[in-house]
Amino acid sequence: MPATGSSQRSEEAAAPAAAPLAEEHAARHARAARRGLATILGDRGVPGRQRPLLTRLIAVALLVQVVPGLVSGPNLLTLNLACVYAMAAIGLSIVFSLGGFVSVAQAAVMAVGGYILILLFGPTVGFPVALLLAGLGGALVSALTGIVGARVKSHYFILISLALAETIQLVITNATSVTGGANGVGLKAPASVLGLDLGLPTDYFRFITILTFVVIYLADSLRASRAGLALRAQTVDGYLALAAGVAIGRYRIMATAIGGVFAGLAGGMVAIRDGYLGPQNFGLDTSILLLLMVVIAGTGRAGSVVVSALILTFLSQGLLTLTSTGTLIYGMGLIVLIIFAPEGLGGLPRLARGALGRLGARRAGTASDDGGER
Amino acid sequence: MSTFIQAVVAGIAAGAVYGLLGAGFSLAYKTTGIINFAHGDIAMLGAYVTFSVFGWGAPLFVAALAGVVAGGLAGAVMERGVLRPLYKRPLVAGILATVGVSVVLQSVIQLVWGSLPLTLPSLASSTPWRIGSVAFSPAQAVLLAVTIIVSTALIFAVDRTRVGRGMRACAQDSGVVVLFGISPERLYLTAFAIAGMLAGLAGALITPTIGLTPSRGVSLSVLGFAAAVLGGLGSVTGAIVGGIAIAVLRNLASVYVSAGYADAVAYLAIVLVLLVRVRGLLGDDLETVRSV
Amino acid sequence: MVSHIKWAGAAMVGAAALAAVGCGGSDKTSSASDAGSANAVKVAIVQPYSGDSAYYGEYADQAFKLAMEELGSTPGGHAITFVRGDSKCVPTAAVQAGNQVLAQSPVAVMAPACSGDTLALKPLLKARNVSACSINLHPEITEANGKIVRAAPSDAFTNELFAKYIADKGVKKIGILHDTSGYGQGNVDTLVSSLEKNGVKVAVNATYDFADTDYSGQIVKLKKAKVDAAYFEGYDLAAGNLVKQAKQLQLDVPYYANTNAGNDTAEKAAGKSLDGVLFATAFLADSSDATRKFTATWQQKFNQAPNSDSVDLYQCAVVILKAIEATGKNATGATVGEQMAKVSAPGVTVGTMAFDASGDLNDPPVLIGTWKDGKAVLVDRLSGAE
Predict the structure, then answer these.
(1) CATH 3.40.50.300 fits C155-281, yes or no
(2) Hey, are the CB atoms on A335 and B267 less than 8 Å from each other?
(3) What is the 3-state secondary structure of C55-66?
(4) What is residue C360's DSSP assignment?
(5) Between residues A305 and A150, the one the model is more confident about
(6) Distance from the C383 Cα atom to the nearest Cα atom in chain B, whole angstroms
(7) Fewer CB within 10 A of the terminal residue: chain C, N end or C end?
């Protein structure tokens, strides 16, 4: 489908030029542009190798079996929350690194999913259906930002996503008869799926791990697909991508929609985890936290987003925020990380190696420079 | 009719402060391209300093000046310490760093002043004058007057002085200003210091109405950002107009539509303006071609 | 750049040091509980300890400190360890914090001061079979055979009396402004239904947001509706700011307000504008011998005036300590809970605290107060013995 789209595009571009010479000229240009893109993408090395599905399945099976035995109590709950955030952050990383949008509405998109699930799920609507609808709702709302956002530039997009987020918050707090307003709303029935009782933290962990891996798999597949290639192309150079016949607008809206699906699912899982939802779960601070997870992950790979989601969730939920000193350290840590790890967590090993290398070099340098000018 | 006028008049007085916030926001953006989400927290810092200095027995006017200075210092320190290494990095790095600064400022405020809400008296009496059936207080008049004086001075400075021209040039091409013997780094510092001072001033002006709480800055940042975007990022006049427009719109929406959804109406208006006019109300042509 | 690295380096060292201290701290608590005798029990305090409402956490700690000084620090021979959770006035955070502290098997819980947090915690308390003492005013906090006792009157009760009081003042058409918090919503819902029962028309019922920086739109709306009285609900600062701004915009009608208008913070925000505003509350510093004595002690000890929140938290601390004392040897969540339900302890806002079947105070106090020359004074006592 994208293939025909793009060839149509180049035909359209060439059509006005009646002369065959001009047509060939245009085609050559398009080819060159595509080659250029390939080089750029090659430089970034983004497609990367995908781990085989089998390895992933084994990893999931191991995690699901082992972790609930090792981790328990509050830590397991935080781990579950980290998985929820990881799903939403993977969604946001699609919006951000493939769509090229800096969105502060991801938590609000989660809210839409969460409220859809908690309001629908009950004796008449089963859990899987409600969860799917949550994902769908997230997709629709998120796509809305894409449709509006495709028309404006990045700084203005932040405000548009902010406007959406605040409006969703207002609707939740003011439509008290439906949402319960600031008091929130409770889950009507206990949820279970695949023989797992999601009211138990252990079973919840098993399910959310499987779900997270599905999300990771889908995200990586999207990245490697033709649509993913087109999206990456437009983030590297929008004009070049247009010249190569990539339908930028459509793909970007698609990216926001897919990012929204994951956020919607994550929102639904928040509702299941707490058995309760309130608008405060999904404020601007949560959106910013998700954005931090994406940026600190660095590479945009779903796996590294999970790692940074784990770290940031434990940091923000754990010991550190009990006092204002904890918050102070958290804020400083963020600044330091942003300044000194330009490639995010993914770049840290290289950064460390570089620093060690420099240190070694300096030692060697001072040893040999002993009689030098310094 | 008098209801309508009253809503508009009260909106203009409230919006003047949003405009000041937006002006600082815009100025920092204009020169560096960075959206400063710590702007509102700098305003709160200024307000807290005003509170302390006033508490030590200084006249309120002097205390407010101390708040302005504190805001300016905070802006400058932030530019030197946090933002300088980030100019060459993608937009989002700078923005998130300012979020980090905002977290730091909030916890510093909480450590120093505690979380109990505090209050400040206003610069002038809040007993209103009655003009027809419309109430307007000396406090609101002072607020409006300060905004007009400060923004006029600022617009003059940006348009007529060497530094101001440098800032505008810097927005266009930071490489070229070097050729004219202007250091872009010094311009960035100046821009953030002035933006911080504007924030501190806005903080000192708005606290008599809303009081002091440590994380109030977030909503001020959002208001400033909205005002700046509506007016056209980078335009000082635009930010003032944008701030007043937002406040008036919110007031009219709460009176005639629904108080609960007043903000939503204001946001909808902003989005519509952006869709029709990408550069905002008074943004310059530069804004439409600027790549970020 | 160099200065930059130094700056960041210092921050990192600081962060590491604090993290180490933090970990050390948590190790200590766990080792203390391991080494504890059979008599040691844990009491959980779930309160906002960070964010804008962090002062509630501070009040709760002070309340326990004072109560333990007065009643002894080892009630019934039990040494008490506190486990604290930071609910931040955010229900999800409350659930998270609640799970964390409940995993350590406390025998009783001091419920968070924000109604929404406590509502979110209710299912957890049931699942763990632990009882909590709450100071929340939201009507749905307590229920028959619930796990929560409440050391403050429910808004449903207060507002029934307050609505009648307002109607008796000859008010026919009232305008209401309230915030969108869980508390504000519950408060106004009960007030509106009671007002309507008493024949008072609610002409405007408008909301404002916590984050709002200006209320002029809402107030002009009240003016437009030509109401003959206004009711303002708000947390400490907002309660004062609303009144001040309404006066500024010349909304010249009698004002009524919720309990927070009686707090010092509200007075600081609004100053003389608060004079004559009638508010319903459970606590006034100068309303009885018990409150006068308590106010003096608290003021002297913590160098700040108590308000209705700190008093109620103190009462909760007393209830919890008394219940542990009455339990005897075998103190668990279930046994202490039983004792909390049938406790009879001296109170400040009421002579004796005792709870009915659903956990609400017997004979709850409802006072009408107002401000006069910078002091909150008693106007009328609608319920509760002195």
Answers:
(1) no
(2) no
(3) HHHHHHHHHHHH
(4) P
(5) A305
(6) 30
(7) N
- For C93-200, list the strands marked E by DSSP: 108-110, 131-134, 148-150, 173-179
Of A254-258, A338-342, A353-357, A361-365, the least confident: A361-365
Q: What is the count of structural domains for chain B?
A: 1
The domain locations on chain A are 51-296
Domain C39-152+291-363: homologous superfamily in CATH: Response regulator (3.40.50.2300)
Q: Give chain B's contact residues with A (Cβ, < 8 Å).
A: 29, 35, 82, 85-86, 89, 91-93, 95-97, 99-104, 106-108, 110-111, 115, 218, 222, 225-226, 229, 233, 258, 260-261, 263-264, 267-268, 270-271, 274-275, 278, 280, 290, 292
Residue C98: closest CA among C134, C145, C63: C134
Residue C20: burial class (beta carbons within 10 Å; 0-12, 13-18, 19+) = exposed
What domain range is B222 assigned to?
2-289
Which among C53, C236, C248 has the least Cβ separation from residue B137?
Answer: C248
Asked whether residue A18 carries a pLDDT value surpassing 50, the answer given is no
Asked if B118's CB is within 8 angstroms of C268's CB, the reply is: yes
A159 close contact with B: CB closer than 8 A: yes
Q: Which residue(s) pair with C257 in the sheet? A: C232, C279
pLDDT tier for residue A33 given thresholds of 50, 70 and 90: low
Which of B92, B104, B270 is closest, CB to CB, to A159? B270
Domain boundaries of chain C, sorted by first residue: 39-152+291-363, 155-281
Query: Which chain B residues have a beta carbon less than 8 Å from that of C211?
Result: 216, 218-219, 222
Smallest CA–CA distance, residue A137 to chain C, in Å, is 22
Q: Which residues of chain C have pLDDT under 50?
A: 1-37
Q: Which residues of C touch B244 (CB under 8 A)?
A: none
Q: A332: which residues sit within 8 A by CB, 6+ positions away?
A: B100, B104, C11, C14, C15
**How many CB atoms neighbour CB C196 within 10 A?**
12
Residue A227 Rama label (left phi>0; alpha psi -120 to 50; beta): alpha
Asked whether this complex has an ipTM greater than 0.90, the answer is no
